[in-house]
Specification:
This protein is an alpha/beta fold. The protein is 37% helix and 18% strand.
C-alpha cells in the first residue's frame, strides 16, 4: 500500500479561500478509497481549530529552533487522517489565512509557510521521528514548494510531486528573508530558489520535484511559453518531460443538484422544474424582480483582473439592457467591488452584488443561474465551470487553460452532433465577450434547444475518480 503525505495550505471544509481547498478536500479521500494510505497535512489556523470537534497530539518536536505540535483529526465527511501543524503563528491569529484585515499579506508569511515546508520535509525523510513515513510527498502551490527542495538535503527521501494550481502566486520574498530563514546557501542560485534576485517558494517545487503537475492539460502547455510562464517558462520547458497536466475533478456528492442541502428545490437533467423554482427563490431573497422572461447570469469568485472583470464591467449596461439579470458573489480588489456595487445600486431589480464568501449562496447561484460568466484572462483549471455544467447552468468562458479543456462551444456543428456544453470565445476583448453572450441569450430564448444543451452539460463526468487514476500512475512512476 502506497503511503502518501498530501500537503496544502487549505482544505474544505476545514478552511477555504479558493479552489485549492476543494481539491485538497476531495482528492485525498478518493485516493484513500482506492487503497492509498493518506495523511493530509495542513496548518492549524484558529478558524480551523474552532471548527473541529476533537483532536489528539501525535508529536511534539522542534524544527530549526521552533517548537511545534502535530495534532490529528479526521477531515469531516471523509476517512482521511489529517495532521495539523499547531504553532502560534497559525493558531493564535484570527481572519484570513494569508492576509491581514488591510488586505495585505501577513508580514511573517515566509516564516509561517517555511515552517509548514520544514515539517512536511521532516515527516517525509524520517527526521520527525514518527512511526509513519510516506513513499510519496505531494505538495501544492507556493506555500509548500520549499518542502520538496528540503527533502533533497537527505539521502533517504520519498518520490515527490508538486502541483501548480496557479503560477501567478509564486511566494516571492527578498534576500534578507532567505538569509533569516537560514536555508542552505546553495539554494540561492538561479538553478534553485533564486528568481531575479528574489527568493521564490514555488521554485522549490518546480526545480526539485520528481514530477510537476498542473491542473489541466492546456495550462501545462501555456506555462511553458510566455506570457503564461510568467518568467519561469524556460525552467518549465526544460522540465517538460516531467510536467503533466491532470484536469481537476469535483466532488459529485457535494455538487449534486438532486441532493444539494443548500437548495430548497432539487432537480436533475430529466426534471428541471426545481431549477426554475430555485431561480425564483434566489430572485426573491436578493430583492431582484421575479421575472422568467430574461436569463439570470451568475458570477462567483474572486473579483480580480484575472477573472475577466475588465471585460465584464464595460459591458454591464448592455448586458442588463438585453434584458438580463446579474448576480455577483465574491470579494477582491476594491475598485472592482465599488464599480459593481455602483451598477447594482442603479439597477436594484436587475443586479445584486454580495461581497462575501458564502458557500451556501455559491451553491444557490450555481443552481439558479441560466448562464455562468467566467471570461478569465487565464485559468489554470477553474472549478466553477465544472459546477455549472453539473447544475445545468451553461458556462460562458474564454478558451484558456482548463476552461478550454472542459467547455465545448455551442457552434452549429457541436449543437448538431450533441457535443456542445456552453459558450467559448477567444481574444480577451469586450466585443468578443458580448458576441458570445449574445449567442448564449439567443439560444436561451429557444428553450427546446437550451434544454438539449443543458442535458449534454449535466451528463459530463468530471468526478475525481478519473483524475485520481492519473495521480496513482505518477505515484508509481520511477524517479
Amino acid at each position: 500500500m502506497t503511503r502518501l503525505l498530501f500537503v496544502a495550505s487549505e482544505a474544505y471544509p476545514l478552511i477555504k479561500t479558493g479552489g485549492l481547498a476543494d481539491i485538497a478536500g476531495s482528492l485525498p479521500e478518493v485516493l484513500r478509497q482506492q487503497g492509498v494510505d493518506v495523511r493530509l497535512l495542513l496548518p492549524a489556523y484558529r478558524q480551523l481549530l474552532d471548527g473541529i470537534d476533537q483532536s489528539r497530539t501525535v508529536a511534539e518536536l522542534e524544527l530549526a529552533g521552533i517548537s511545534l505540535r502535530i495534532l490529528a483529526t479526521v477531515l469531516p465527511g471523509t476517512g482521511v487522517e489529517t495532521w495539523l501543524l499547531d504553532h502560534p503563528s497559525f493558531a493564535e491569529r484570527l481572519g484570513n489565512p494569508y492576509h491581514g484585515p488591510d488586505g495585505q499579506p501577513w508580514p511573517d508569511n515566509a516564516d509561517r509557510f517555511m515552517l509548514l515546508s520544514r515539517l512536511a520535509a521532516a515527516i517525509s525523510t524520517g527526521e520527525a521521528g514518527l512511526d509513519w513515513r510516506p513513499d510519496v510527498l505531494h505538495c501544492n502551490d507556493w506555500h509548500t514548494g520549499p518542502a520538496v527542495a528540503l527533502t533533497h538535503l537527505q539521502e533517504q527521501r520519498p518520490l515527490t510531486l508538486f502541483t501548480v494550481h496557479s503560477l501567478a502566486h509564486m511566494g516571492l520574498f527578498d534576500r534578507g528573508t532567505f538569509e533569516r530563514l537560514q536555508l542552505p546557501g546553495h539554494f540561492w542560485q538561479d538553478s534553485a530558489l533564486e528568481f531575479y534576485d528574489q527568493f521564490s517558494f514555488i521554485k522549490g517545487g518546480l526545480v526539485y520535484a520528481d514530477y510537476i503537475t498542473t491542473v489541466s492539460p492546456t495550462y501545462a502547455r501555456e506555462i511553458c511559453e510566455s506570457p503564461g510562464g510568467m518568467g519561469l517558462e524556460g525552467l518549465l520547458q526544460a522540465r517538460r518531460e516531467r510536467l503533466v497536466g491532470i484536469l481537476n475533478g469535483i466532488d459529485h456528492g457535494v455538487w449534486n443538484p438532486a441532493a444539494d442541502p443548500y437548495l430548497e428545490h432539487h432537480y436533475d437533467a430529466a426534471n428541471l422544474e426545481g431549477k426554475a423554482l430555485e431561480k425564483t427563490a434566489l430572485q426573491r431573497s436578493l430583492g431582484l424582480a421575479e421575472l422568467d422572461d430574461r436569463p439570470l447570469l451568475g458570477i462567483v469568485g474572486r473579483l480580480v483582473e484575472q477573472k475577466g472583470l475588465e471585460l465584464i464591467l464595460p459591458a454591464l449596461g448592455d448586458i442588463l439592457a438585453k434584458p438580463a439579470q446579474v448576480v455577483v458573489l465574491g470579494t477582491g480588489e476594491r475598485r472592482y467591488e465599488e464599480q459593481l456595487q455602483a451598477v447594482a445600486r442603479a439597477h436594484p431589480d436587475a443586479m445584486a452584488v454580495i461581497l462575501a464568501y458564502d458557500e451556501s449562496l455559491a451553491h444557490r447561484i450555481e443552481a439558479s443561474a441560466d448562464i455562468f460568466l467566467m471570461p478569465s484572462l487565464f485559468e489554470p483549471c477553474g472549478l466553477n465551470q465544472l459546477y455549472s455544467l453539473r447544475y445545468g447552468t451553461l458556462p460562458l468562458v474564454r478558451a484558456v487553460g482548463g476552461l478550454a479543456d472542459t467547455v465545448v462551444d455551442a457552434t452549429p456543428q457541436a449543437l448538431a452532433d450533441g457535443t456542445a456544453t456552453g459558450f467559448v470565445f477567444g481574444p480577451p476583448d469586450s466585443g468578443e465577450f458580448m458576441s458570445a453572450l449574445a449567442r448564449a441569450i439567443a439560444l436561451w430564448r429557444d428553450q427546446a434547444s437550451w434544454r438539449r444543451l443543458q442535458a449534454t452539460a449535466m451528463a459530463q463526468d468530471f468526478s475525481w475518480q478519473r483524475s485520481a487514476a492519473r495521480y496513482l500512475e505518477l505515484y508509481d512512476s520511477p524517479r
